[in-house]
Amino acid sequence: MSTVQEHPTPAAHPRGATAVEIVGAGRVFGGRSAPVVALEDVDLTVAAGEFVSLIGPSGCGKSTLLRLVADLDQPTSGTVRVFGGSARDARLARDYGIAFQQAGLLPWRTVRANVELPLALAGTGRASRRERADELLAMVGLTEFAEHHPDQLSGGMQQRVAIARALADSPSLLLMDEPFGALDEMTREHLQAQLLRICAETRAAVVFVTHSIPEAVFLSDRVVVMSPRPGRIRQVVDVTLDRSGAATPGSGPHDDAGDDLRTDAAFVAAVAAVRTALHGGGTGPRGVDLR
Amino acid sequence: MTRSPVAGAARQVLPPVVLLAALLGAWHGAVVLGDVPPFVLPGPAAIGDQVVTYREAISSAALVTGRNAALGLLVGSVLGVLLAVVAAAVHLLDVLAEPVVAALAVVPIVALAPVLYAMYGAGSEQARVVVAALAVFVPVYVTTLRGLRQVRPVHRDLMAALAASRVQVARTVTIPTAVPFVFTGLRMASSLAVISAIVAEYFGGPRSGIGSFITTAAAGSNYAQAWAYVLGGIAVGLTFYAVTATAEHLATRRAGP
């Protein structure tokens, strides 16, 4: 089932219950003389509609792992399957939406044209493209900035545009590589709450790379804790939080950003569990945000 | 304290105008009081007088030189852009062209003018256009090729993630990234085109452009007249620069990160 004839409805997930299936994946950079093992023997399955975070210190290969899923890089061993097919087929079928650490907007296009980009490349008609862009810009609260150019927007607003762009083609898988990494704490918590709401609405599976423990816990169903050099999965922490409050649609631009949830006892316990997992294993948690 | 836009503009424009007037006054004073002979330096009044007297001859000469420079700029930049596009796509050609372009960059191109007059005939403007085109080619080629290689990694990843075809990548990312670089090359090349067109006239050819009249006037001891033609050459150069700089500004406006 590697080719797709129609848009999947997120609720049904016609291509089975598995979004991503990684088996024994490894990635070695460099030549034979000085190989650098970025990833080793990684097994991970992400169910449809599931939110999974990859967390670990700098250089643990979490971004590399995400790039393997996106087929922007290929594993040197093992397999990566996306919706039952190869990662390459999924990329060529535009099965996933992606957001990078940098917003990566095209500066010569308006905000609207940036959001429309995936649809324009897929050959969607002008009218439906515009309609979808308006819908997404409303979703991320940037309707009045549609005709602006990216350089007129703040970093947080640019990142919201990038997220809207990632969602343009209604993907049932969303890949995010530290999309809030460069933002201040307040903007960040606000965007996290928005992302939770969007995910509740679209029911897309998400693979989310971060180095912030609270961010991972706040967003995820499961937090995958990785260790550096070689990058391996050290532990998977299940998070069970009642997110019904944080993911309420229609909250304004200055909603509480899930403040109740962040002070919840289960949240604090999960943060402690992830922190313990990160610290365990001898090497210190270099580059990990312990806030 | 609020300032009106008129006052703001005056504050910007007035200082250089005052400075220019003071310099002209000092020049005039030095020439008159110091009794400087005109072959050393004619006074601004004498030059101004010549500009008025020969205004039609100067403007027609400026048009001839400007036309040569414009044609050279057009031909040279079209060739430069086309070859850069091919070199960016075909690595082998890039490797082959690199030393040739480097060699071309250090050749004093106006020195080719006498040879080209022999090729095209002494009555033809062609040689001057060729000289200008050759001078323009190198900066346009180099900056365009550079611009075509400036695509940001995040944009390249994005295009891959969106499964964009080669044509789509070129249209969506590569060309818009390169365009400001092309215009920077054009701006640098525009001055070169005018200089080359004028200097090429020093080496012979028909007596039609600014350069030929400067040499003629100087040879005939009409120093103020020679200076008047120099002013015509400056006007052509400034026009070219202003047009290409404006084009560059428009092209670069949205090219930030």
TrEMBL record, chain A:
ABC transporter domain segment(s): 20-253
Keywords per UniProt: ATP-binding, Nucleotide-binding, Transport
Tagged with keyword Transport: yes
CDD domains, sorted: ABC_NrtD_SsuB_transporters (cd03293)
UniProt keyword annotation of ATP-binding present: yes
Protein name: ABC transporter domain-containing protein
Organism this protein belongs to: Cellulomonas phragmiteti
